[in-house]
Amino acid sequence: MSRWRPDARQRLQQAALDLFAEQGFAETTVPAIAARAGLTTRTFFRHFADKREVLFADDAEASVLVAQLMAGAPAAAEPLTIIREGLRALAENRFEGRKAALRHRRELVRSDAGLQERDLRKRAALAEAIRDGFLARGLGAARAALLAETSVTLVYVSVAEWLDSDDDRKLDDIVGEMLAALRAEFG
Amino acid sequence: MSRWRPDARQRLQQAALDLFAEQGFAETTVPAIAARAGLTTRTFFRHFADKREVLFADDAEASVLVAQLMAGAPAAAEPLTIIREGLRALAENRFEGRKAALRHRRELVRSDAGLQERDLRKRAALAEAIRDGFLARGLGAARAALLAETSVTLVYVSVAEWLDSDDDRKLDDIVGEMLAALRAEFG
């Protein structure tokens, strides 16, 4: 009966992260992840292409979230306003309250060349989603690319600072600091 | 006698690019590249780890160039000045005058998932070289990362615009335009 429970995806993610932590990423198999979640291997593959993908599911969802936010922004909104609001939503929906899990995920990604590569690809895909959003809003190619790449830089640099720090600054406050730093350096 | 000529590296690069253009990247073998250059396969492997690496040799050299430039900049130089001078040197030494070859290289990279991945890794390595340069100059981790990622964004967005355009703007002029655009958006 458990295989039909609607939270299969989250259970698989949690089981995978637990096993990666307990026995290492390389040693963890898909059947072991499915068994820990009380689900079948087949169910696993309905949700994820492979065990690596478990670690990047949130990134794929981030690209979708970004595309929705950009399409829903008022026609007259300035790019910087869209970026600021988008980063706020991303911080609140995808990051805040998950610092320990995301620190652990970062360790895992750093430990494996294949995971690092996939991380770079997901980063490029996020930049592409933002660029496409600006193109769809009528911006020129170079401007859309510049805004998209800079947005992704703000996300990555802010998340790194947030994961590195032990104070209780919120991620969105750090994004604000980084935006101010960007202004101070290049403005 | 030809195998001892000092320009083996450049000859191998040219032979590889010619063959990639004539018969495609996937169809071109290392022995064929070496033969076209009048050199042995062994000589090829003294210069490049594999045929992919031929396309990224310049990127690796760019990271070295960047590290040298940053180490050689005056102690009192502002980060933005170092970035501006570094981008100028990079544009002049690695890009200007090679638009046709670089356009062709871009097509090749776009055509192959493995090449795209390596391109992302080289981009990350360039950001890391710049970040390390700023860390060595005593900047904090977040500031060094923000400056490095933004520098790489400026390089990539400017090169894309330069390769896309058929006018005779110099790459360094486009870098200046992008820097002004960054100021206008975020300043």
UniProtKB/TrEMBL annotation, chains A, B:
Source organism phylogeny: Bacteria, Bacillati, Actinomycetota, Actinomycetes, Micromonosporales
Protein name per Swiss-Prot or TrEMBL: TetR family transcriptional regulator
Species, as recorded: Pseudosporangium ferrugineum
DNA-binding region: 29-48
Domain named HTH tetR-type: residues: 6-66
Residues spanning the signal sequence: none
Record keywords, A-Z: DNA-binding, Transcription, Transcription regulation
InterPro entries: DNA-bd_HTH_TetR-type_CS, Homeodomain-like_sf, HTH-type_TetR-like_transc_reg, HTH_TetR
Domain of life: Bacteria
MF term (GO), any: transcription cis-regulatory region binding
